[in-house]
Amino acid sequence: MIDISLYLVYAGARPGRPGAAEPAEPRQDRKIATVRKRFWAPPVSCPDISGKRILMPRWVPFVIAIILGIALGLLYGWVIEPVHFIDTTPDSLRADYRADYILMVAESYHADQNAGLAARRLSIFGSQSPANLASQALQTGRQSGYSPNDLSLLQELLRAMQAYQPAPAVGTP
What we know:
Elements: H1 35-38, H2 59-80, H3 95-112, H4 115-122, H5 130-144, H6 148-163
Helix pairs in contact: 3-4, 3-5, 3-6, 5-6
């Protein structure tokens, strides 16, 4: 059998440089007062606290950081510094707003009966023909529940754009 009492003389003894280990007597029983003795406090037992350390899985802080980053990004982009569109063309409008714009062109056409001016106002939408744009606006107006008066204005504009022939470009000599 091995005599273990030789190894248990001082449980806190550490190997290393000479004099590095604590003395064999406990601090409370020392006769010489040291700074450490003045600040010594007896250990407190807490029966409700277990000595186990609860470990969090490694992915939990990562997920929390991702969620926090998304939340802060949305807060910054939507509340603090939202995007402001300035001087955009009607070509970037949604279909219902595009139909509203074409309805305004139809009201203008109804007032002055100038098909060329109405075609120029519709040309802002790009390469589509004015008749095609008026037809799309009429379909959107029916789906959106426009009033019968507005639908008749759009039909009048559609007939005018179907009959409209642009003047040939006159070249300069």
